[in-house]
Structures are given as structure tokens and as C-alpha cells.
């Protein structure tokens, strides 16, 4: 599945266009490599996503085309969350 679609379906980012912009700005890494919106992701991949003042590291657990809102959190496991300090 494309990275931008995964971010939207898993509800990490609410809109696919926003997911595409975030990826194309270089704020998403897949397995340590900066990824574009069209990068294919698979189960077991590790993502690092920068959301404003926060970095989130997570692992992909499930991939499906459609998901109910309440099941979206089962698509990934958060490995680490950290705030970015402004000096």
C-alpha cells in the first residue's frame, strides 16, 4: 500500500492530501530512509513521522483498504514518542 494511503487509512493523518504533503516534505521515514508519498509500505515496516513539535516512531501491524474508525489504532504499534525541543 502507498505510504500516503496507509497514513490516512490508519488515521495517523486525517486526509490523504495532507499525508502526501507531509511525506513529500521529508517528514516521514520508512525503515530509516526518507520516503515519498508513493513509497510502498508493508507489515513490519518501521515509520518515523514528524508531527509539528513531536516525533513518533511506530511499527506497521496491519494493512487493509478499508477500516472502521474504532479499529484504526490496531494498524500500528507506537514504539516511541518524543517532543522536539526548541532552543
Automatic annotation (TrEMBL):
GO terms for molecular function: ribosomal large subunit binding; rRNA binding; tRNA binding. Keywords: Protein biosynthesis, RNA-binding, rRNA-binding, tRNA-binding. Residues 1-68 form the RNA-binding S4 domain. SMART domains: S4. GO terms for biological process: rescue of stalled ribosome. Transmembrane segments: none annotated. InterPro entries: RqcP (IPR025490), S4_RNA-bd (IPR002942), S4_RNA-bd_sf (IPR036986). Gene3D superfamilies: RNA-binding S4 domain. The keyword Repeat does not apply. HAMAP family: RqcP (MF_00871). Key component of the ribosome quality control system (RQC), a ribosome-associated complex that mediates the extraction of incompletely synthesized nascent chains from stalled ribosomes and their subsequent degradation. RqcH recruits Ala-charged tRNA, and with RqcP directs the elongation of stalled nascent chains on 50S ribosomal subunits, leading to non-templated C-terminal alanine extensions (Ala tail). The Ala tail promotes nascent chain degradation. RqcP is associated with the translocation-like movement of the peptidyl-tRNA from the A-site into the P-site. Belongs to the RqcP family. This is RQC P-site tRNA stabilizing factor. The gene is rqcP.
Amino acid at each position: 500500500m502507498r505510504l500516503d494511503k496507509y497514513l490516512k487509512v490508519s488515521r495517523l493523518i486525517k486526509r490523504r492530501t495532507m499525508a502526501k504533503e507531509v511525506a513529500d516534505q521529508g517528514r516521514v521515514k520508512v525503515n530509516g530512509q526518507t520516503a515519498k508519498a508513493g513509497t510502498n509500505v508493508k507489515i513490519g515496516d518501521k515509520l518515523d513521522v514528524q508531527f509539528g513539535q513531536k516525533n513518533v516512531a511506530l511499527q506497521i501491524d496491519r494493512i487493509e483498504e478499508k477500516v472502521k474508525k474504532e479499529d484504526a489504532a490496531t494498524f500500528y504499534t507506537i514504539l516511541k514518542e518524543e517532543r522536539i525541543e526548541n532552543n
